[in-house]
Amino acid sequence: MNSMFSRDRWDEILEALNANKFRTLLTAFGVFWGITILVLLLALTNGLKNGVTADFGDFATNSMFMWSQGTSKPYKGLPKGRYFNFKIDDVAALKTAVPNLKYVSPRNQLGGFNGANNVTRGTKTGAFEIYGDYPEYIKQQPMDILQGRFLSYSDINAKRKICVIGTGVLNSLYDKGEPVLGTYIKINGVNFMVVGSFKMSNSQGDEEQDANTIYMPFTTFSQAFNRGDTVGWMALTAQDHVSITTLKPQVFNIMKARHKVDPTDDRAIGHFDLSEQFGRVNGLFSILSFVGYFVGALVLMSGIIGISNIMLIVVKERTKEIGVRRALGASPWAIKSQILQESLMLTILAGMVGISFAAFIIWGMNILLDYYGPVDNFANPSVSMQVIFTALIILIVSGVLAGLIPANSATKMKPVDALRID
Questions:
Q1: Are the CB atoms for 320 and 419 separated by under 8 Å?
Q2: Positions of the chain with pLDDT under 70
Q3: How many whole angstroms separate alpha carbon 263 and alpha carbon 254?
Protein backbone atom coordinates (compact mmCIF):
# COMPACT_ATOMS: atom_id res chain seq x y z
CA MET A 1 0.00 0.00 0.00
CA ASN A 2 1.44 3.39 -0.96
CA SER A 3 2.00 5.70 1.98
CA MET A 4 0.16 8.97 2.52
CA PHE A 5 3.11 11.00 1.27
CA SER A 6 4.24 8.87 -1.65
CA ARG A 7 5.06 10.44 -5.00
CA ASP A 8 2.35 8.42 -6.78
CA ARG A 9 -0.30 9.70 -4.41
CA TRP A 10 0.67 13.35 -5.04
CA ASP A 11 0.70 12.80 -8.79
CA GLU A 12 -2.77 11.29 -8.55
CA ILE A 13 -4.06 14.24 -6.49
CA LEU A 14 -2.65 16.81 -8.91
CA GLU A 15 -4.14 14.90 -11.81
CA ALA A 16 -7.55 14.81 -10.12
CA LEU A 17 -7.43 18.59 -9.44
CA ASN A 18 -6.25 19.30 -13.00
CA ALA A 19 -8.93 17.13 -14.60
CA ASN A 20 -11.48 19.94 -14.36
CA LYS A 21 -9.48 23.15 -13.84
CA PHE A 22 -12.41 25.58 -13.99
CA ARG A 23 -14.40 23.60 -11.42
CA THR A 24 -11.36 23.36 -9.14
CA LEU A 25 -10.76 27.13 -9.39
CA LEU A 26 -14.38 28.01 -8.65
CA THR A 27 -14.38 25.67 -5.64
CA ALA A 28 -11.09 27.03 -4.34
CA PHE A 29 -12.35 30.63 -4.73
CA GLY A 30 -14.83 30.17 -1.84
CA VAL A 31 -12.02 29.28 0.57
CA PHE A 32 -9.70 31.95 -0.88
CA TRP A 33 -12.37 34.64 -0.39
CA GLY A 34 -13.31 33.45 3.12
CA ILE A 35 -9.77 33.52 4.46
CA THR A 36 -9.05 36.88 2.72
CA ILE A 37 -12.08 38.45 4.44
CA LEU A 38 -11.13 36.91 7.79
CA VAL A 39 -7.56 38.30 7.69
CA LEU A 40 -8.66 41.72 6.33
CA LEU A 41 -11.37 42.15 8.99
CA LEU A 42 -8.85 41.39 11.74
CA ALA A 43 -6.28 43.76 10.18
CA LEU A 44 -8.86 46.57 9.97
CA THR A 45 -9.92 45.95 13.59
CA ASN A 46 -6.25 46.16 14.55
CA GLY A 47 -5.85 49.39 12.58
CA LEU A 48 -8.80 50.93 14.44
CA LYS A 49 -7.42 49.71 17.76
CA ASN A 50 -3.97 51.17 17.03
CA GLY A 51 -5.54 54.49 16.01
CA VAL A 52 -7.85 54.81 19.01
CA THR A 53 -5.36 53.64 21.65
CA ALA A 54 -2.75 56.02 20.21
CA ASP A 55 -5.12 58.86 21.22
CA PHE A 56 -4.23 57.97 24.80
CA GLY A 57 -0.72 59.01 23.80
CA ASP A 58 2.11 57.62 25.90
CA PHE A 59 0.51 58.76 29.13
CA ALA A 60 0.63 55.87 31.61
CA THR A 61 -2.68 54.08 31.01
CA ASN A 62 -2.81 53.01 34.66
CA SER A 63 -3.36 56.65 35.65
CA MET A 64 -6.12 59.06 36.51
CA PHE A 65 -6.53 62.81 36.89
CA MET A 66 -8.38 64.25 39.87
CA TRP A 67 -9.57 67.76 40.69
CA SER A 68 -11.88 69.45 43.22
CA GLN A 69 -15.39 70.66 42.35
CA GLY A 70 -18.23 72.25 44.33
CA THR A 71 -19.79 70.10 47.06
CA SER A 72 -23.33 68.85 46.42
CA LYS A 73 -24.21 68.16 50.09
CA PRO A 74 -23.85 70.20 53.32
CA TYR A 75 -21.49 68.61 55.85
CA LYS A 76 -20.41 69.39 59.42
CA GLY A 77 -22.01 72.84 59.34
CA LEU A 78 -20.47 73.65 55.94
CA PRO A 79 -22.90 74.63 53.17
CA LYS A 80 -23.76 72.81 49.96
CA GLY A 81 -22.08 74.30 46.83
CA ARG A 82 -18.87 75.08 48.75
CA TYR A 83 -15.69 75.17 46.67
CA PHE A 84 -12.41 73.89 48.10
CA ASN A 85 -8.88 73.32 46.80
CA PHE A 86 -6.52 70.41 47.11
CA LYS A 87 -3.39 71.32 49.09
CA ILE A 88 0.26 70.26 48.71
CA ASP A 89 0.01 68.33 52.05
CA ASP A 90 -2.57 66.04 50.41
CA VAL A 91 0.19 64.51 48.26
CA ALA A 92 2.23 63.17 51.18
CA ALA A 93 -0.98 62.04 52.93
CA LEU A 94 -2.03 60.04 49.85
CA LYS A 95 1.41 58.49 49.37
CA THR A 96 1.47 57.38 53.03
CA ALA A 97 -2.10 56.06 53.15
CA VAL A 98 -2.11 54.36 49.73
CA PRO A 99 1.29 52.65 49.20
CA ASN A 100 0.04 51.14 45.92
CA LEU A 101 0.22 54.58 44.31
CA LYS A 102 3.41 54.76 42.25
CA TYR A 103 3.28 58.49 41.44
CA VAL A 104 1.19 61.33 42.85
CA SER A 105 1.93 64.47 40.85
CA PRO A 106 0.34 67.73 41.99
CA ARG A 107 -0.06 70.15 39.07
CA ASN A 108 -0.92 73.80 38.51
CA GLN A 109 -1.61 75.56 35.23
CA LEU A 110 -1.48 79.11 33.98
CA GLY A 111 -2.93 80.63 30.86
CA GLY A 112 -3.66 78.57 27.83
CA PHE A 113 -2.25 77.99 24.42
CA ASN A 114 -5.23 79.89 22.94
CA GLY A 115 -5.19 82.53 25.67
CA ALA A 116 -3.53 85.95 25.86
CA ASN A 117 0.19 86.41 25.17
CA ASN A 118 1.88 85.51 28.42
CA VAL A 119 5.49 84.82 27.39
CA THR A 120 8.01 87.25 25.91
CA ARG A 121 11.62 87.08 24.81
CA GLY A 122 13.00 90.33 23.45
CA THR A 123 10.54 91.46 20.80
CA LYS A 124 8.95 88.02 20.37
CA THR A 125 5.81 87.02 22.26
CA GLY A 126 3.48 84.01 22.43
CA ALA A 127 0.57 82.43 24.28
CA PHE A 128 1.58 79.13 25.85
CA GLU A 129 0.42 76.55 28.41
CA ILE A 130 2.46 76.98 31.62
CA TYR A 131 2.55 74.08 34.07
CA GLY A 132 3.97 73.80 37.56
CA ASP A 133 5.08 70.16 37.97
CA TYR A 134 7.15 67.66 39.91
CA PRO A 135 10.07 65.69 38.33
CA GLU A 136 8.19 62.35 38.24
CA TYR A 137 5.63 63.76 35.81
CA ILE A 138 7.97 62.79 32.95
CA LYS A 139 7.50 59.13 34.01
CA GLN A 140 3.73 59.46 33.66
CA GLN A 141 3.86 61.44 30.42
CA PRO A 142 7.01 60.31 28.58
CA MET A 143 8.76 63.01 26.58
CA ASP A 144 11.99 63.17 24.63
CA ILE A 145 14.39 65.73 26.07
CA LEU A 146 16.00 67.29 22.98
CA GLN A 147 18.49 69.55 24.80
CA GLY A 148 19.42 69.99 28.44
CA ARG A 149 17.27 68.31 31.09
CA PHE A 150 13.85 68.05 32.76
CA LEU A 151 12.96 69.30 36.27
CA SER A 152 14.81 67.93 39.32
CA TYR A 153 14.15 67.80 43.06
CA SER A 154 16.94 70.33 43.67
CA ASP A 155 14.90 72.76 41.48
CA ILE A 156 11.81 72.01 43.61
CA ASN A 157 13.62 72.51 46.93
CA ALA A 158 15.50 75.66 45.87
CA LYS A 159 12.42 77.05 44.01
CA ARG A 160 14.68 77.75 41.04
CA LYS A 161 13.29 80.03 38.34
CA ILE A 162 13.99 77.57 35.54
CA CYS A 163 11.79 76.05 32.82
CA VAL A 164 11.70 73.37 30.11
CA ILE A 165 10.10 74.41 26.81
CA GLY A 166 8.30 72.53 24.02
CA THR A 167 9.31 72.66 20.35
CA GLY A 168 6.47 75.08 19.53
CA VAL A 169 7.75 77.59 22.13
CA LEU A 170 11.29 77.13 20.80
CA ASN A 171 10.23 77.88 17.20
CA SER A 172 8.16 80.93 18.24
CA LEU A 173 10.70 82.65 20.47
CA TYR A 174 14.07 81.60 18.98
CA ASP A 175 15.68 81.91 15.57
CA LYS A 176 16.86 78.74 13.87
CA GLY A 177 20.19 77.56 15.27
CA GLU A 178 20.12 80.13 18.09
CA PRO A 179 21.42 78.73 21.43
CA VAL A 180 18.59 78.00 23.87
CA LEU A 181 20.08 76.61 27.09
CA GLY A 182 20.91 79.30 29.63
CA THR A 183 18.76 81.95 27.91
CA TYR A 184 15.87 83.71 29.66
CA ILE A 185 12.19 84.03 28.83
CA LYS A 186 9.69 86.23 30.67
CA ILE A 187 6.48 84.54 31.86
CA ASN A 188 3.85 86.98 33.18
CA GLY A 189 6.63 89.46 33.88
CA VAL A 190 8.88 86.96 35.74
CA ASN A 191 12.23 85.86 34.23
CA PHE A 192 12.91 82.12 33.90
CA MET A 193 16.06 80.43 32.63
CA VAL A 194 15.57 77.72 29.99
CA VAL A 195 17.35 74.49 31.04
CA GLY A 196 15.87 72.10 28.48
CA SER A 197 13.62 71.57 25.49
CA PHE A 198 11.37 68.57 24.77
CA LYS A 199 8.93 66.96 22.42
CA MET A 200 6.30 64.41 23.44
CA SER A 201 7.21 60.79 22.65
CA ASN A 202 4.83 59.52 19.94
CA SER A 203 2.30 62.20 20.79
CA GLN A 204 -1.01 61.38 19.12
CA GLY A 205 -3.04 63.79 21.22
CA ASP A 206 -3.12 67.52 20.51
CA GLU A 207 0.42 67.78 19.14
CA GLU A 208 0.26 71.54 18.67
CA GLN A 209 -0.83 72.05 22.26
CA ASP A 210 1.87 69.68 23.56
CA ALA A 211 4.55 71.56 21.60
CA ASN A 212 3.32 74.92 22.99
CA THR A 213 3.88 73.90 26.59
CA ILE A 214 6.32 75.13 29.26
CA TYR A 215 7.13 73.18 32.45
CA MET A 216 8.58 74.71 35.59
CA PRO A 217 9.10 73.45 39.17
CA PHE A 218 5.80 73.28 41.08
CA THR A 219 7.21 75.25 44.05
CA THR A 220 8.55 78.01 41.80
CA PHE A 221 5.19 78.24 40.02
CA SER A 222 3.35 78.57 43.37
CA GLN A 223 5.68 81.33 44.53
CA ALA A 224 5.91 83.26 41.24
CA PHE A 225 2.16 83.24 40.57
CA ASN A 226 0.88 83.49 44.18
CA ARG A 227 -0.75 80.07 44.40
CA GLY A 228 0.33 79.46 47.99
CA ASP A 229 -0.07 75.77 48.85
CA THR A 230 -3.05 75.10 46.54
CA VAL A 231 -2.98 72.36 43.91
CA GLY A 232 -4.98 72.67 40.68
CA TRP A 233 -5.28 68.94 40.09
CA MET A 234 -3.32 65.71 40.47
CA ALA A 235 -2.09 62.99 38.12
CA LEU A 236 -2.04 59.65 39.96
CA THR A 237 -0.47 56.43 38.66
CA ALA A 238 -0.84 53.06 40.39
CA GLN A 239 1.89 50.45 40.81
CA ASP A 240 2.20 48.11 37.81
CA HIS A 241 0.44 45.17 39.50
CA VAL A 242 -2.54 47.25 40.72
CA SER A 243 -5.31 48.97 38.73
CA ILE A 244 -5.82 52.66 39.52
CA THR A 245 -9.58 52.01 39.21
CA THR A 246 -9.49 49.78 42.32
CA LEU A 247 -7.61 52.47 44.32
CA LYS A 248 -10.04 55.26 43.38
CA PRO A 249 -12.56 54.80 46.25
CA GLN A 250 -9.77 54.80 48.84
CA VAL A 251 -8.17 57.94 47.33
CA PHE A 252 -11.52 59.79 47.23
CA ASN A 253 -12.34 58.84 50.85
CA ILE A 254 -8.99 60.21 52.07
CA MET A 255 -9.46 63.48 50.14
CA LYS A 256 -13.07 63.91 51.34
CA ALA A 257 -12.04 63.35 54.97
CA ARG A 258 -9.16 65.86 54.62
CA HIS A 259 -11.41 68.56 53.13
CA LYS A 260 -14.54 68.04 55.28
CA VAL A 261 -16.66 66.68 52.44
CA ASP A 262 -19.61 64.33 53.00
CA PRO A 263 -18.31 60.75 52.33
CA THR A 264 -21.41 60.13 50.12
CA ASP A 265 -20.87 63.30 48.05
CA ASP A 266 -19.82 61.97 44.64
CA ARG A 267 -19.82 65.36 42.92
CA ALA A 268 -17.19 67.06 45.07
CA ILE A 269 -14.21 65.41 43.38
CA GLY A 270 -13.99 65.28 39.59
CA HIS A 271 -11.83 62.68 37.91
CA PHE A 272 -10.87 61.11 34.59
CA ASP A 273 -9.75 57.49 34.79
CA LEU A 274 -7.49 56.59 31.85
CA SER A 275 -7.26 52.97 32.96
CA GLU A 276 -11.06 52.58 32.88
CA GLN A 277 -11.34 54.28 29.47
CA PHE A 278 -8.49 52.16 28.11
CA GLY A 279 -10.17 49.01 29.43
CA ARG A 280 -13.45 49.95 27.72
CA VAL A 281 -11.66 50.54 24.42
CA ASN A 282 -9.82 47.22 24.69
CA GLY A 283 -13.10 45.45 25.51
CA LEU A 284 -14.71 46.97 22.43
CA PHE A 285 -11.88 45.73 20.22
CA SER A 286 -12.07 42.24 21.70
CA ILE A 287 -15.72 42.19 20.57
CA LEU A 288 -14.76 43.50 17.13
CA SER A 289 -12.07 40.80 16.79
CA PHE A 290 -14.64 38.19 17.70
CA VAL A 291 -17.00 39.61 15.04
CA GLY A 292 -14.10 39.49 12.54
CA TYR A 293 -13.46 35.81 13.28
CA PHE A 294 -17.19 35.03 13.26
CA VAL A 295 -17.97 36.73 9.92
CA GLY A 296 -14.76 35.38 8.34
CA ALA A 297 -15.54 31.86 9.57
CA LEU A 298 -19.08 32.05 8.13
CA VAL A 299 -17.78 33.12 4.71
CA LEU A 300 -15.10 30.42 4.94
CA MET A 301 -17.80 27.88 5.83
CA SER A 302 -19.57 28.51 2.52
CA GLY A 303 -16.24 27.83 0.77
CA ILE A 304 -15.80 24.59 2.75
CA ILE A 305 -19.33 23.45 1.82
CA GLY A 306 -18.38 24.12 -1.82
CA ILE A 307 -15.28 21.94 -1.53
CA SER A 308 -17.26 19.19 0.21
CA ASN A 309 -19.86 19.24 -2.60
CA ILE A 310 -17.22 19.04 -5.31
CA MET A 311 -15.47 16.17 -3.53
CA LEU A 312 -18.80 14.31 -3.40
CA ILE A 313 -19.12 14.79 -7.18
CA VAL A 314 -15.49 13.66 -7.65
CA VAL A 315 -16.18 10.52 -5.59
CA LYS A 316 -19.28 9.81 -7.71
CA GLU A 317 -17.26 10.30 -10.93
CA ARG A 318 -14.58 7.90 -9.67
CA THR A 319 -16.94 5.24 -8.35
CA LYS A 320 -15.63 2.66 -10.79
CA GLU A 321 -11.98 3.45 -10.00
CA ILE A 322 -12.72 3.16 -6.27
CA GLY A 323 -14.44 -0.19 -6.91
CA VAL A 324 -11.38 -1.52 -8.79
CA ARG A 325 -9.03 -0.38 -6.05
CA ARG A 326 -11.21 -1.96 -3.35
CA ALA A 327 -11.42 -5.21 -5.38
CA LEU A 328 -7.63 -5.20 -5.65
CA GLY A 329 -7.39 -5.07 -1.87
CA ALA A 330 -7.11 -1.33 -1.08
CA SER A 331 -8.17 -0.77 2.52
CA PRO A 332 -11.05 1.64 3.33
CA TRP A 333 -8.44 3.92 5.01
CA ALA A 334 -6.34 4.10 1.82
CA ILE A 335 -9.41 5.29 -0.13
CA LYS A 336 -10.45 7.66 2.68
CA SER A 337 -6.99 9.18 3.08
CA GLN A 338 -6.72 9.98 -0.63
CA ILE A 339 -10.06 11.86 -0.64
CA LEU A 340 -9.08 13.67 2.58
CA GLN A 341 -5.68 14.58 1.13
CA GLU A 342 -7.26 16.01 -2.00
CA SER A 343 -9.69 18.17 -0.03
CA LEU A 344 -6.91 19.26 2.37
CA MET A 345 -4.60 20.20 -0.46
CA LEU A 346 -7.30 22.21 -2.23
CA THR A 347 -8.29 24.00 0.99
CA ILE A 348 -4.74 24.82 2.10
CA LEU A 349 -3.62 25.96 -1.35
CA ALA A 350 -6.64 28.25 -1.72
CA GLY A 351 -6.17 29.49 1.86
CA MET A 352 -2.46 30.28 1.43
CA VAL A 353 -3.24 32.28 -1.72
CA GLY A 354 -5.99 34.08 0.25
CA ILE A 355 -3.60 34.92 3.12
CA SER A 356 -1.00 36.19 0.63
CA PHE A 357 -3.61 38.32 -1.16
CA ALA A 358 -4.82 39.80 2.16
CA ALA A 359 -1.19 40.51 3.15
CA PHE A 360 -0.71 42.33 -0.17
CA ILE A 361 -3.81 44.51 0.46
CA ILE A 362 -2.65 45.28 4.05
CA TRP A 363 0.80 46.23 2.71
CA GLY A 364 -0.90 48.53 0.16
CA MET A 365 -2.98 50.17 2.91
CA ASN A 366 0.12 50.89 4.99
CA ILE A 367 1.93 52.39 1.98
CA LEU A 368 -1.07 54.69 1.34
CA LEU A 369 -1.20 55.69 5.02
CA ASP A 370 2.53 56.51 4.95
CA TYR A 371 2.12 58.49 1.73
CA TYR A 372 -1.03 60.47 2.59
CA GLY A 373 -0.32 60.83 6.29
CA PRO A 374 -2.24 59.53 9.34
CA VAL A 375 -6.02 59.09 9.35
CA ASP A 376 -8.03 59.88 12.52
CA ASN A 377 -8.56 56.81 14.70
CA PHE A 378 -6.80 54.48 12.22
CA ALA A 379 -3.13 53.48 12.15
CA ASN A 380 -0.95 50.61 11.00
CA PRO A 381 -3.52 47.93 10.03
CA SER A 382 -1.75 44.61 10.57
CA VAL A 383 -2.20 41.06 11.78
CA SER A 384 0.11 39.12 14.06
CA MET A 385 1.72 35.77 13.20
CA GLN A 386 -0.69 34.31 15.77
CA VAL A 387 -3.63 35.27 13.51
CA ILE A 388 -1.93 33.70 10.46
CA PHE A 389 -1.22 30.56 12.50
CA THR A 390 -4.86 30.46 13.69
CA ALA A 391 -6.03 30.91 10.08
CA LEU A 392 -3.86 27.97 9.00
CA ILE A 393 -5.26 25.75 11.77
CA ILE A 394 -8.80 26.78 10.70
CA LEU A 395 -7.86 25.83 7.11
CA ILE A 396 -6.47 22.41 8.07
CA VAL A 397 -9.52 21.59 10.23
CA SER A 398 -11.81 22.87 7.44
CA GLY A 399 -10.01 20.78 4.82
CA VAL A 400 -10.43 17.62 6.92
CA LEU A 401 -14.12 18.41 7.58
CA ALA A 402 -14.71 19.10 3.87
CA GLY A 403 -13.29 15.70 2.95
CA LEU A 404 -14.90 13.62 5.72
CA ILE A 405 -18.39 13.14 4.21
CA PRO A 406 -17.11 12.40 0.66
CA ALA A 407 -14.43 10.05 2.08
CA ASN A 408 -17.02 8.19 4.12
CA SER A 409 -19.38 7.87 1.15
CA ALA A 410 -16.47 6.48 -0.93
CA THR A 411 -15.79 3.66 1.55
CA LYS A 412 -19.48 2.80 2.09
CA MET A 413 -19.71 1.42 -1.48
CA LYS A 414 -19.36 -2.34 -1.88
CA PRO A 415 -16.66 -3.13 -4.47
CA VAL A 416 -19.09 -5.35 -6.42
CA ASP A 417 -21.72 -2.58 -6.69
CA ALA A 418 -19.07 -0.03 -7.66
CA LEU A 419 -17.76 -2.23 -10.48
CA ARG A 420 -21.29 -2.73 -11.85
CA ILE A 421 -21.77 1.02 -12.52
CA ASP A 422 -21.12 2.00 -16.11
A1: yes
A2: 1-6, 9-10, 12-13, 16-17, 55-58, 111-117, 202-206, 374, 410, 413-422
A3: 9
Query: 143: helix, coil or strand?
Result: strand
Q: Name the CA dihedral angle for 98, 102, 103, 104, rounded to a multiple of 10 degrees.
A: -10
Biggest alpha carbon–alpha carbon distance for the chain: 107
| Helices within 243-331 (DSSP H only) | 244-258, 274-317, 319-327
Look up the pTM and report it: 0.68
Q: At what angle do helices 332-372 and 21-54 cross, to 10 degrees?
A: 40
10-45 pLDDT, tens per residue?
A: 676 677 667 777 878 888 888 889 889 988 998 998
Taking the C-alpha atoms of residue 241 and residue 410, their distance in angstroms, rounded to an integer, is 58
Contact yes or no for 133/105 (Cβ under 8 A): yes
Structure letter (DSSP) for residue 52? H
What are 264-317's pLDDT values in tens digits? 999 999 999 988 888 888 888 889 888 888 888 888 888 888 888 887 887 777
The H-or-E segment that residue 185 falls in is: strand 184-187
What is the rounded CA–CA span in Å between residue 99 and residue 239?
9
154: number of Cβ within 10 Å: 10
Q: Can you tell me whether residue 192 is helix, strand or coil?
A: strand
Q: Which of 104, 65, 119, 85 is nearest to 228 (CA)?
A: 85
Nearest to 224 by CA among 184, 192, 258, 260: 192
Compute the distance between CA of residue 38 and CA of residue 48 in angstroms, rounded to an integer. 16
Residue 148's region, left for phi above 0, alpha for psi from -120 to 50, else beta, is: left
d(CA 337, CA 3): 10
